Structures are given as structure tokens and as C-alpha cells.
Amino acid sequence: MLMWVETETGVRCGVFCDECGAEIVGRGIATSDDGDLARAPLIFLHYGICSDRREARVGSQGWEDIDVFLLMLGSNFRVNWEEASERAALLTNDETGPDTEQGPRAPAGSVGTRARA
Description:
Order of helices and strands: EEEEHEHH
Helix content: 25-40%
Largest sheet: 3 strands, antiparallel
Number of domains: 1
Distance between the termini: 24 Å
């Protein structure tokens, strides 16, 4: 689940695990409990224990690493990465920006899933 998180210096968007409820700070995945990943509601899980627990209950669905999923989502919205980074820095009072001038960019219209091994 995506939620706004208030910090001492502003706000940021947090991603929370739909299995355990804790914030996903390290590696996580975007997936669904539905067999038709292309049309199913998304859930977010910690990679490892939480994703394994969910898979044991509902079976293996397609999945994508959260970092790749977010780039795909940004690409679908035609995000201007430089402008978005500047606006996000204002909200969070964070002086850091993207690693490159334009930031990361996924191919336009890219959609994909990764089979769980």
C-alpha cells in the first residue's frame, strides 16, 4: 500500500507491505493475488519472507521489483524526471536529486511481469 509519511522535515511517500504492514525500505516486489496480473489490483510485499508467505497461500503470480515497477509507472505517466525530482525535494526539504540530469527512464509504454522462480 502507498501512503504519505510525515517526517520532521516534510512528507514523503512510503510503500508498506500488504503482508506484514511494515514499510518496505529495502527490496520489495509489486504483485497481485489474482491470476490475471494485467488487470488485478496491486499489492506490495517485502521480498523474501513476506513474498514467500503470500505465495504459499495463494500460489505464484507474476511480479516485478518495486524499483522497476515505479519506473514503468512513471513512464506510463510520461514523467519529467528532472522536474519531478525538484518538486519532490521541495516537499521533503531534501537537497538531493537524481543521479543523472533526466533521471532514470523506462521505455515508453513498457509493461512486463516476471515469473516467480
